[in-house]
Design brief:
The protein contains eight helices and five strands, in the order ααααββββαβααα. The chain is elongated, with a radius of gyration of 23 Å. With 240 residues, the protein is of the alpha+beta class.
Amino acid sequence: MSTAQSAKPKKKRRLAQVAQNIKDSYTISRRSYPWIGWALLGILVVLLAVAGVLAAVTSQALWYWLLMALVFALMVDMIVLSLATRRASYMQIEGHPGAVKAVLDQAGRGWYVEEQPVAFSPKGQDFVWRLVGRPGVVLVAEGSPGRTQHLIEEEKKVLRRILSTVPVHVISVGTAEGQTRLIHLERTLRRLPTKPTKLTNTEIDRVSKRLSSLSSKGLPIPKYMDPNSIRPDRRAIRGR
């Protein structure tokens, strides 16, 4: 009896958490896309109308098609809301020092992302992040291309010296011409070439450990530009 009673509050807390997550996602999306509420409602109305037509054409029970349309509409709405929330979150943190790290943390399996930048410029608040994956070593520059070019070249010299056979890719993130927008960073990472060299899981682990051992002391990043001070809603970025 006590077990059943204790299960009810847990279930209520889970439902409340789900409702809160949906509310947070909607709030974040609406800041960048004021029309998101109408879009979600429109999906529901259209699918319910289609259900009515299908019920008339097939001569089946109306309630059956309406129920199916409602379930399908909720699924589609959740997908649209998740995508809108993810994109809106990136748009809202774009331009803040350390915003790139929030995106790199969502890179997923197959990537090793270092916690601290491998280079930074206190004057311009520019960062260079490093990650290792199937394509090789990737350097992600955050800031003005003119200011980060020197940082990138210095890091590439180090990589060529200790990992001469591993491909090195460079991505410059920003809003200037020729740069990759923050919202497109994940897609750019997925499209990096893996030929003629593609690292295996063992090689990724070996390379990441080698690089980590070289930068184990870390960089003395000033508190006023610490990327960890930028705390975007990562739950919203994941669409949950």
